[in-house]
Specification:
alpha/beta; globular; 132 residues; 24% strand; 3 helices
Amino acid sequence: MDRSKIVAIACETADGLAGQVSGHFGQTPFFVVAEIAGGQVTTSRAVASPGHGEGCNMPSFVQGLGASAVIVGGIGGGATNGLAAKGIEVIAGASGNAGRVLKSYAGGTLISGAPGCHGHGSHSHGCGHDHS
């Protein structure tokens, strides 16, 4: 990764890189927006998510942050497709400390897992997966 790249990480809190990766893209309360250059994090900031209410277009919001990649624990197929349509790489299945996850991504060692949704119990909730 030689050129600079902006990455948005879905996070549970506004603690920046000290926060935890969010388990669900569409319900994340914050994003950490980080710039990576030369395999290193050069800048980062926490940004409040617009939420998932009516009229919210999370792929457009992420694109507006300047991100070319998004890192999240879980994400539904509609959001994945929406992000892909905007040319945004989706790295799903991440968990734990946002700073460590981002460092792994910058170093080329973070591998995307299954983009399924997590933590919703046994019911269908509109993410394209039936959790029963």
